[in-house]
Here is the input.
Amino acid sequence: MKVPPVTETLVLLGVIAFVSGLIDAAVGGGGLIQIPGLFNVLPQSTAPATVFGTNKFSSICGTAIASRQYVRRVRLPWSLVLPAAVCAFAFAFVGATAVSLIPKEVLKPIILALLIAMAGYTFMKKDFGHLHKPKEITARERWMAAALGAAIGFYDGLFGPGTGSFLAFLFIRCFAFDFLHASASAKVVNLATNLASLAFFIPSGHILWWAALPMAACNMAGGMVGARLAIRGGVKLIRVLFLILSMVLIGKFGADLFWH
Here is the structure.
């Protein structure tokens, strides 16, 4: 592939990062846009770990700004969100260390089945995620939040695609959140898993700073716009975007499985 001039490359990466940040802030799944974009635009000689490191640095900036937008406008149950975030951070490390032990080919059919079940459940239950009637927060709910954070953190460190969607779905299903509160809570937990990843990528030198820094600025701009759209559009908009993203994820995993 012919590598575009540096200026054109940065413009392309900036557009990709902005769109990724916007989608990710609203419903998650920005990596589905940004990672393929990086692989296509960056030189083919770029190591995959460097591509993922550059992606993580950019995306965490967008996630941080989106989290800030949500926290300022949406009241979150921190006694649930914080245990989930702490455990997600810790187990993202564990997942990263297990990457070489579990082949991704084994995971893909499992994730595809989960995505289909999640999308089908959301589509069939028309009121799913529409009402915000959170359960009373007891020790049981805190332990459940910690366990869910650990499981999703492990998955994000091990594999990653669809992390935000799984988090949002679980916050709705297990704690009776609506889509808005679930997306806001998912952003905070996802921020923790991204921090865990960067704790590996930065010391190991797997970040292209000349690309990561301008992409981070564009991702932040997209994250701000996406969060505001989600907050203004409310539950109905996020539900539609959630279902669309779920179908895209199903299509991607299905193509990966059956095409190869």
In short: The two ends are 22 Å apart (CA to CA).
